[in-house]
Amino acid sequence: MNVLVVGGAGYIGSHVVRLLTKAGHETWVYDNLSRGHRQAVPTGRLIEASLTDRVRLEDTLRELRIDAVMHFAAFALVGESVEDPALYYNNNVVATLALLDAMRATNVRRMVFSSTTATYGVPERIPITEDEPQTPINPYGFSKLVIEQALQDYAKAYGLGFAALRYFNAAGATPDGDLGEDPRPESHLIPIVLQVALGQREKIAIFGEDYPTQDGTCIRDYIHVDDLGDAHIKALQQIEPGKQIKLNLGTGRGDSVREVIEACRRVTGHPIPTEIGVRRPGDPPELVADSTRAQQQLDWQPRYNSIESIIQTAWNWHRGHPHGFSE
Ligand code: UDP
Description:
38% of the residues lie in helices and 18% in strands. The protein is built from 10 helices and 14 strands. The strands form 4 sheets. Strands 3-2-1-4-5-6-11 form a 7-stranded parallel β-sheet, with helices on both faces.
């Protein structure tokens, strides 16, 4: 298929581009490089433009004879979305609606959409199934839920086919260590802990130790970025115009902040000092996936089955690229 990867210069998108290319798809990246990196995109495959440039977007979809769009171009930081919701509604909602309009105008009827566990808010049941009510508690989660709803409505009215993939916590890097996570500003737990191991930070602040969990710190389901990517490629093959696919992508295993830090100590051999900070607004105590539906429907299994194995790949990347893509 001819696939346009919107936001393909970012962390998850760039890993998916590699996997798509390996699977034999013709792949191009459409990215404004506001948070992505030119170096993460294969040479000659980048269209540097914004989703609000309607003419450029429609020309691209037509000229490259795009069959499917994968859409990763979103802001995804819970704390930032609480502080600056306008950024999130404009980028994640308004720009995505522009993309959907351009797809309608050019008759592109397949989309893989990056959704999120943040659409569930504070879930009633753990592990979380796709039937859990979607009641977000932060603007990031709302911005993604609005688009999930739009996709459903567009599927019914206009015959759009889509897969909304609800990610748990993407982590890790390519096993060869030459592609990884380099967001600016860095806010994710594992990269920050590894920056402590590299001597770039003194310590890691644990955002709250008074949560109703076993050790008092938040529990998340960390899934390797290539496992996420494999699921995208399998989902792509199943999308047909009008068909709706909604799936959780996680491992079903939860690790607390303290457990992640402990695993980083084992992988890096560094003591990693910690300090207790206050809770970060918008953080639910526990998010762990039930991804049985994805496993069955996509015939997919995550291959990285321990937090150490995921952290090991992230460590290979960070050690080899202590300043990310800027070297
Ligand atoms: N976290 C932390 N200290 C940090 C960064 C994150 O304690 O410096 C916690 C955060 O509160 C959450 C977990 O680590 O419970 C994972 O956060 P991250 O930002 O990596 O992902 P999110 O769950 O927000 O998608």
